[in-house]
Design a protein that fits this description.
This protein is α+β, with helices and mostly antiparallel strands. It has a single domain (2-162), classed as Alpha-D-Glucose-1,6-Bisphosphate, Chain A, domain 4. It is built from 6 helices and 7 strands. It has a 7-stranded antiparallel beta sheet with strand order 1-7-6-5-4-3-2, sandwiched between helices. Strand 6 (109-119) and strand 7 form a beta hairpin. The termini are far apart. The mean pLDDT is 94.
């Protein structure tokens, strides 16, 4: 239990290069979540929404102040806030229509966020999300259940806007 509580994970450099860029999260991290949703929209539409980082502010619950100074590309940096937390992120994988993955750091925490898109035979998209979050004492403040709720809200909002619903 103590080992889990004080697990800081690999350095950001290692997390980015050896985990995120290889399409994997930190399985040893004390906080993890994954989920998926079927979106009644083509992969191209879902990809467009995911890679319009500034556009997240219009549909993603709690997301604000997104800043990206370059195009969405491997090793491009961006920053954003969710709730009261400011996150500095670096994009690790950009496979158009297939995967968008980044690492992020906030306060003393380190995360890997993966979004994998799979087209369905009927023209819809299956979107799979997974994330790991590590840092000393993180489980005391932010657990897997809370991260799972955040993911469900994120997926539901993305589904709604991709299927032609109103942004938040």
């Amino acid at each position: 239990m103590l080992k889990r509580l004080f697990y800081g994970g690999p350095s950001m450099g290692v997390l980015h290069e050896e985990y995120a860029k290889r399409g994997r999260i930190d399985e040893r991290a004390p906080v993890k979540s994954s989920g998926e949703i079927r979106i009644g929209a083509p992969v191209e539409r879902v990809w467009e929404l995911l890679t319009d980082l500034r556009g997240w502010e219009g549909w993603a619950p709690g997301v604000r102040d997104v800043r990206l100074d370059t195009a969405v590309a491997v090793d491009a940096s961006f920053s954003w806030s969710i709730g009261r937390t400011r996150i500095k992120s670096v994009i690790a994988i950009v496979k158009p229509g297939r995967e968008l993955t980044w690492t992020g750091a906030a306060l003393w925490t380190k995360a890997v966020d993966r979004h994998v898109l799979v087209p369905t035979e009927d023209g819809a998209t299956r979107l799979y999300v997974e994330e790991s979050l590590a840092g000393a004492l993180v489980p005391l403040f932010f657990g897997s259940a809370k991260l799972e709720v955040q993911h469900r809200r994120w997926l539901a909002a993305l589904k709604a806007v991709a299927e032609g619903g109103a942004a938040r």
